[in-house]
């Protein structure tokens, strides 16, 4: 598979976040998204996941079925861990696994791998920030998806969980998976980098029609 973004633009809240953005990610490759706060890294991940519309340009996943949205091939782990606090840890993962399909590990195994086996029957609402993130990352283990979209995946997790995450990413890439990762951290393996520009200037007034965001496009290096 190959993910290609061609001349992409993204508009949110009437403001242009980026435009003219081009990149390509081959099977087995990880593209790191870098740039200052507000550059549009999260927006790009959400756009690829299908959670934010493509305002201009084209996004395609070569090797995928044409009538299936790119997001259907992706694991998206965003800033919010998307957990239901009243459900148990195991139920949360079970819910996600049911949504995502293509199971590759049962819930118990995935929870054990992220160090949450002992908390499986506790409500997710009691989890610490790092434990919530571990639970979100357990989705990567439970279900098979070729494209991983990870937004600051190392946030809140300790050294042990980081090492486990890096192992997971390595295995994913070695198996021909693709990954886009927004992070301010250094990753311990070879990656390509997409530098994204600075934030668009704040609009002078709340008239969306008058907003002219800077071209914050970039190219993968
Ligand atoms: N839901 C939203 N509605 C309108 N504008 C938004 C929304 N979310 C983000 N934006 C705007 O999009 C721009 C890019 O935000 P984004 O979160 O993609 O940046 P980022 O590069 O991921 O930043 P950070 O490093 O702080 O996480 C910002 O100017 C932000 O205000």
TrEMBL record:
<comment type="similarity">
    <text>Belongs to the ABC transporter superfamily.</text>
</comment>
<dbReference type="GO" id="GO:0022857">
    <property type="term" value="F:transmembrane transporter activity"/>
</dbReference>
<keyword id="KW-1278">Translocase</keyword>
<feature type="domain" description="ABC transporter">
    <location>
        <begin position="3"/>
        <end position="216"/>
    </location>
</feature>
<dbReference type="GO" id="GO:0016887">
    <property type="term" value="F:ATP hydrolysis activity"/>
</dbReference>
<dbReference type="GO" id="GO:0017004">
    <property type="term" value="P:cytochrome complex assembly"/>
</dbReference>
<dbReference type="InterPro" id="IPR017871">
    <property type="entry name" value="ABC_transporter-like_CS"/>
</dbReference>
<dbReference type="InterPro" id="IPR003439">
    <property type="entry name" value="ABC_transporter-like_ATP-bd"/>
</dbReference>
<feature type="compositionally biased region" description="Low complexity">
    <location>
        <begin position="207"/>
        <end position="221"/>
    </location>
</feature>
<dbReference type="GO" id="GO:0005524">
    <property type="term" value="F:ATP binding"/>
</dbReference>
<dbReference type="InterPro" id="IPR003593">
    <property type="entry name" value="AAA+_ATPase"/>
</dbReference>
<protein>
    <submittedName>
        <fullName>Heme ABC exporter ATP-binding protein CcmA</fullName>
    </submittedName>
</protein>
<feature type="region of interest" description="Disordered">
    <location>
        <begin position="196"/>
        <end position="221"/>
    </location>
</feature>
<keyword id="KW-0201">Cytochrome c-type biogenesis</keyword>
<keyword id="KW-0067">ATP-binding</keyword>
<dbReference type="InterPro" id="IPR005895">
    <property type="entry name" value="ABC_transptr_haem_export_CcmA"/>
</dbReference>
<keyword id="KW-0472">Membrane</keyword>
<keyword id="KW-0813">Transport</keyword>
<dbReference type="InterPro" id="IPR027417">
    <property type="entry name" value="P-loop_NTPase"/>
</dbReference>
<dbReference type="Pfam" id="PF00005">
    <property type="entry name" value="ABC_tran"/>
</dbReference>
<keyword id="KW-0547">Nucleotide-binding</keyword>
